[in-house]
Each structure stands twice: as C-alpha cells, then as structure tokens.
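Project outcomes to date are best conveyed with an example. Our students and postdoctoral researchers have been running inverse folding experiments weekly, and each run begins with a structure described purely in tokens. The record below, which covers 208 residues, was selected by the lab manager from last quarter's runs and is presented without edits.
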C-alpha cells in the first residue's frame, strides 16, 4: 500500500491521486486500508515519516565518518539531493510535505530536525575554526536548510531535478568564500567537494 502511494504521489499532487487508485494499485480493499490507516491523508503522513526516517539515517551515517563538521554539512546537502533524485520514498515524501504546507497542514518536524542537525554541526565547525566566529549557528542552520529547499524546488520546476547535484554544488560555491575564515581558504575546494561514501536508502533503513 505504501509503495502504491509512493508511485502515485511521485509525479502527481496529493488531491489528484484518489484513494481508489492507491487501493487498486496495492490490490487492497477499503476495509484492509482502514485496518492500518484511516484515510488517504494518514497514508500521506506515513510516507512523510518514512521519508524523514531515511533522511535522518543519513545524518547519523555522515556523523560516523571521518570528516570535519563543515564537510559533513556539505555532505548532508548532497546526500539529501541524491535521495530526492534516486529514492522514490524520499521524493514522494518531499512532494507531499510541500503540498500540505501550502495550506498549513504540512509537518514542521522534518525541517526542525534537519535544522537542529545542521545547527549542531555548525557549532562544531565554529569551534574547529572552519566557520567565522561571527556566525550564529541556529541562524546559519535555518538559512542552509532554507537555501537547499529553494534550490531543489527550483531545480524540480526547471529541469525535473536533472541539474540538482550541480545546483547544490553551486550553492556551496557561493557560500563558502564568505563563511570560511581567510586562513582556511586553502581548504575550500576540498570542503566543497565533500561527499559521503555511505549513501542511505529505504532498503538500508528497513533491511529485508
């Protein structure tokens, strides 16, 4: 049933995908649906929760790597972009979240968790000397997650995210010269090129 919802909502808006379509694709009856979930919106929110679990798993996987905090922030943005492009659960979850947010029904939790993770890394990056000490970590974290959200949304509108990897890299190309202390500029290209070598997928979060 979740897979049917993911397939339906990957390329279409929530209102345009009927509950009947989802049930037919899943080979289920309404009675079977109501045994697990009460409505189409409950299913949509379940997919959002699954998407968020995959994204937070990426935060933990990246935190376990031998990389500076600023590199981990860059890695996180690129891994989120990779998931949106390659993982249908993440793609559907992001789409549903943005659509529900248009009329104030969207969950704030995923964004707050991403901001919190980025804030923790930003505070570490300041301590490590890789961010200028005038940067306020909470403000910086909110900006980075907001900037990434804008970049991926425009990429979806203009190219169906074909250029998302490039646009995220460009975002960091603009940001890094202004946020890294001048005595660390020699490391800027290495930081900009940081990528995780442990991509997280739905199958790795829910093995088997």
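After processing, the design step wrote out the following sequence:
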């Amino acid at each position: 049933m979740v897979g049917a919802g993911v397939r339906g909502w990957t390329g279409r808006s929530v209102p345009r995908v009927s509950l009947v379509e989802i049930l037919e694709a899943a080979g289920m009856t309404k009675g079977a649906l109501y045994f697990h979930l009460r409505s189409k919106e409950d299913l949509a929110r379940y997919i959002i929760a699954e998407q968020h679990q995959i994204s937070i798993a990426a935060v933990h996987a990246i935190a376990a790597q031998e990389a500076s905090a600023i590199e981990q922030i860059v890695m996180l943005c690129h891994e989120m972009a990779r998931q949106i492009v390659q993982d249908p659960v993440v793609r559907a979850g992001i789409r549903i979240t943005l659509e529900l947010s248009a009329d104030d029904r969207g969950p704030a939790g995923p964004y707050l968790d991403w901001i919190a993770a980025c804030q923790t890394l930003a505070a570490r990056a300041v301590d490590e000397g890789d961010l200028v000490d005038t940067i306020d970590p909470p403000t910086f974290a909110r900006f980075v997650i907001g900037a990434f959200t804008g970049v991926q949304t425009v990429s979806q509108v203009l190219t169906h995210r074909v250029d998302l990897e490039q646009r995220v890299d460009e975002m960091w190309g603009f940001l890094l010269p202004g946020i890294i202390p001048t005595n660390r500029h020699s490391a800027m290209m290495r930081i900009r090129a940081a990528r995780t070598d442990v991509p997280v997928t739905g199958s790795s979060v829910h093995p088997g």
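The two ends are 17 Å apart (CA to CA). The chain is about 70% helix and 0% strand. The training component of this project remains on track.
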